[in-house]
Every structure is written in C-alpha cells, then in structure tokens.
Amino acid sequence: MPEKPDCDYNRCCLVLIDLPAPDLFVKLPLSGKSSLAAHPWTGMAAVEILLVFAVFFLQGAWPVPDVNEPYYLGKAIHFWHPEWIADDFFLNSADTHEVFYFTVGWLALWLAPWLMAWVGRVLTWLLLAWAWWRLSWAVVARRWVAVLTAALFACALERCHMAGEWVIGGVEAKGFAFVLLFLGVEALVRNRWNRSVVLFGGAALFHVLVGGWSLVAAAIAWLLAGSQRPALVTLWPGLLFGAALSLPGLIPSLSLTWGVAPEIVARANFVYVYERLSHHLVLSAFPVFFVLRFGLLLCLWLVLCRRTPSTGATGRLQGFVTGGVAIALVGLLISALAALAPVRAAGLLRFYWFRLSDVAVPLGVALLGTWWIVEQLRLRPTFGKPLLAAATLIAGLHLGEFALLRPFPTIPRAVRVANYGGWREVCTWIAASPDVPPDARFLTPKLNQTFKWYTGRSEVANFKDIPQDAQSIVEWWDRLLDLHATGHKDPQYRWHDSLTELSLDRLRHLGEKYGAAYLVTESEPPLMLEQMYRNRTYAVYRLTPAAATPGNRSQGEKGGPGDAALLPVRRLIDPSVRNQRIRFVTRLSSSFDRFAPWQSPTNRKGGSSSVCCQTSSRAARSSGRSSQVSLSTTKTRGSSSIPRKAARRAKVSQGQGRQQVTGKSACKMWRSSMPIFQNHRPLTTR
Length: 686
What we know:
Elements: E1 7-9, E2 12-17, E3 24-29, H1 43-60, H2 69-80, H3 98-104, H4 113-139, H5 145-160, H6 173-189, H7 193-206, H8 208-224, H9 236-254, H10 262-276, H11 278-281, H12 288-307, H13 312-337, H14 342-349, H15 355-379, H16 381-405, H17 420-432, E4 441-443, H18 451-455, E5 458-459, H19 470-484, H20 504-514, E6 518-522, E7 530-534, E8 538-542, H21 567-572, H22 580-595, H23 601-604, H24 608-624, E9 634-637, E10 640-643, H25 644-649, H26 663-673
Parallel strand pairs: 4-5, 4-6
Antiparallel strand pairs: 1-2, 2-3, 6-8, 7-8, 9-10
Helix pairs in contact: 1-4, 1-5, 2-3, 4-5, 4-6, 5-15, 5-16, 6-7, 6-8, 7-8, 7-9, 8-13, 10-14, 10-19, 12-15, 13-14, 13-15, 15-16, 22-26
C-alpha cells in the first residue's frame, strides 16, 4: 500500500510517522508553504543542498590527483583522445566503465587533466548533495536535518569502513553510481518500488557492482517487507526497464573473460584478489581494527533497529541495509573457505562482497539515528536535546578536522613516491624536454601512480594500474614480476626497492623487451648509463644509445627545461609554508636523537656494531637473491659500503632481536597515533 501523502495546513506539514500502533499524524512546524515530501524547489531547499555540498567538499577536496583519478580519468582521456599516450599498455586494455568514459572524457578535449578533475568533482558532489537531500527528507522531513545526516554519514563512512570503500572523494565511475543509489533508496523509502529498481539499474549503468548489489539488497528488502510489499507482477515494468538500462554497463563487464582459456581466467582472478586487491576483497586481509570498528557501528545499527519502527518508511530502509549486511555475510563465508580452495574462492571474491555494507550501514546509522533523535525531541525534549547536541558535536569535530587541514598544502593522495618535490621536478622535465619524444616509453618505479598524469608519456607497468580483462591482468602481473621481483621466497624481500638494484645488462634487456628507451629511477646510486637529467632524488637515463647532439647533454640539478613551470611546486614545498606542527615535530626528533636513552652509545655514533649487523643482513639476503641483482646496489655511508635495503631494514640490536627506535621514528609513531595526521601526508623534502 502506498503511503498517505503529506498535505499543507496553516504553514505546517503533516508528516506520517510509522509506528507499530495505528498511524499518527504529528504537526512539525516547517518553513515554506508545503512539505518537501513532494520536493518543491524553493530557495531554502537550494541553500540546504549547498550546505550538504559544503560538507562533501570539506571532506573530499584533496589536492589533484586523488587516489583513483589518474586511473579513471586517464582512461577517460584516452577514450576520447586516443593519440594521448597512444601505445601505453594499461590505457589500451579493455574499457570496463565505458559509460563513465563517454560521459566525462569529452571534457579532456578542452580542459587540462587537473581542471577536468575539479570539474568532475564539483559535478559529482553537487549531484550527491542533491540526492542525499532527497533521501534525508524522505526519512526525516525537517529543515536543516539533511546537513546533519550528511555530516554523520560522512563521519561514519570515513572512520568506520571495513573494506576501504568510500563515496566522497575524487571523480570516478562509482561516484555517479552512488548518486543513483541514493535516489533509488529514497524511492524505496517512499514505497515506489518500480522507480527504485530503475534507478538501481541506472547505477549499474555507471558501475555494475554498485548497481548490481543495490538490486540484490532491494530484493532482500522486498522479502522482508512481508504483507506490505507489492505484488511481484506489479514490478515487471521497473524490472524490465532497469535491466535494459544496465546492459551498457553489464555487457563490457561480462566480456572481460569471453574467449579466454580457463587457466588464464583462474590465474587472473587469483592475482586480482590475493595479490593486488586483497585489502578490499578478502576479510582475512582487513586490519583487525577496521573489522572491530565496523562491528561496533553494526551493533549501533542493530540498537537503532530496535528503537525505530520495522514497518513503513523506516522498515524499508532497515530492509535495504539488512540486505547489504547479508551480502557481506556471504562474502565472509567465502573468505573463510578461501583457505581450503583459494582458486575457486578467488573467482567469487572478485565481486566486492563488502562494498555495499561499507556504505549501507553508515547510511542507515546516520538516517535512522537522526530519525530517532527527532522523535525523542518530540516525545521527551529533556532527553532528546542532549542526544541532538552529541550528534552535532560528533559531526562538527569530524568536519572541523578536515577544515583545519584544507588551508595547508598537502601531497596529493595519488602520490606514492619517496619525495613529492623531486618527483614533480623530474616529471615536469620529462614533459617539457625536447629530448624526450611524445611516444617515449619508460621504466618507472613500481609504486608510482602519477607518471602518465604528469608527463603524458607511456610506461611499461606500475602496481596501481591493473587492467580489468583477464588476459591483460596476467600480462600486467608478468610485467611487474619481470621488472621488480627479486625472486626471493621471503615476502619481506619479494620486491626490489628500486630499479637501481638491477644490473645494467638487466635494465637494457628489459628496455629492449618492452620497447622502453628511457628509465626514471632514484638518483642514488648513480648508474653507468647516459644520464639525461638528475635532481637530488630522481634521475632520467637513456637505455638505448643515441647520437651525441646538443640536446642530449646531461642536465644537472638545476637549470633544466622545466624550471619555470616548477616554481609553483617549489613554493608549495618550501619549508616556510609548512605546517607549524610538522616543523615542531622535526625539531623534537632531532633532540630525541641526541638524548635517546634507548640507543647505545655505539649506535648513536654509527659504530661498528650497526655496520656488522647490516653487513650480516646483506650476506643473508644475497644467498637467496637472483643472479640478476647488480652488485652496484651498495651505497657508501662513512667508511663502509652497505646495501640500501639492508641499511633500512636491519636495525636490530645485537643479542636482543628488537628493532631499534630512533628519535624520528618515535615522532612518526606519535604522529601516526594522532587523528589529525592520519588522513594526510605533509609536504616534505629530502
């Protein structure tokens, strides 16, 4: 049965409150002529949506590029402009989110990538704010409550997720899918099942997993609705239209394994689930703290379910969230069976069983928690006012932390290299240098994510840019193993820290094998290759011989072609504009290094005991290392030659087997324990 419509009477809104007892109509004083249950567009509604947008802006306004923006926007740019990095392996792999690439990629014809990212972000956040405003009003029809529910949802999602899912951030396909998910849940709450099914099908159009799991959760909500659910025969228009709408997103996903040998598909699934994305897909790989905090949020949700009606609007919302939790429980069972049959389990775990629960539980807690607080304000004001104050305080503290971070320059979250300033300098030099042709291909550091974004040049492979089709996943993994694997059985030493650890013959062989004529890697230790550019952190080498021309001369630390373009970056990383707290911590760490009681006098002075420990670590590692590792990986420190990786890892005190703690590492541990430092990385230079 459809809900009774709200009506207008003496500038008051009669809102239906669903209770187990007979329906009651309660007058809630609202501004405006009519209830927003029918969504009239007024000036106050626009202000409320803008405030919700401000909440999302505060949380998501990280520097460009954000974590997944080089991945998705790079594919979108290449979709509309194939000449951009024409022969890159990842960009030429199968396109899964074609609707997103088609919808957003055309902006690259007129906008630079960074401006394209900001335009996409603002559009996504505006649509999310509008969709959330509608959803919040469907549950709690009161002015300004949507702003509070949006802040509580953002807080619960940011701080209590289990599988690393997020909604508010950089522009990518699932951002638009979550807009349609919010609208679908709003239609579900309003008892408009056909509309909700169509909207969930639209979510699958942009992101097949977001929309697909939403349809499953809606089906579970329909089963739990009991006598209040509509007859299945009345839902066939929505099911038919929603299925047709989802096909452009579903067919590219299904085609990822068409015509591929089963053994290739099995290996691709294994790599995808266990090697690359286990932190999203396998429960045993989640941090224990993440699981515990999500469990506490789930307990809060169960308490709210006991405090709110299980019929009507709140009952349908409970059913949808319960559907998301049920999907996660199935993923938990599959993760438990992974130890017995990992290959078979990988074929199922790749479908992100925990994605919807990470979003649905915070959504339910924010909306039903606010609904319950509003009811307490009406029934027991002396009890409801402290609850409202506590919810407002939690939302304010969460947003206040992000408001404190925004004035200070921070490193983009997509940057995963050792030194941001040096990385920007070398990328800007590559992009501007006439000695590097546009079709050049590079061997690059394994963990970099932004080389193509900053340079517009191709690379052989990096750890972030995993393709989606089975054949390309296997080839991508083979490339990573070929470039960066040590061959050591110990997982701690599985990967080279730097390409400088490879021999010169090995580097030339890899360049010839993958058509890469250039190498960008750490500048220390220097390699016996033609050096084209060098700064304090990174260097560019030519792997293939080139004719001696004036343009091929080596570039020093300063005076390169990209110096003018790098002035804003150098101002950004200048110590005078850093956070005062970071400078205080740095000074404090130097004092700790001088008086640290946990260090022996020999170790503080760099005596022989530390050198012997590091040398023994090198001997232990060299026994299991592949013959391809170059002996030129040593780095002179004082009077001894010590391997770079061993010098960093073998800090174990003799006789005790306990890792040494320096003053700087103690300050890092202190900073990592403070919430204000956990969501960003300050700008630093070496």
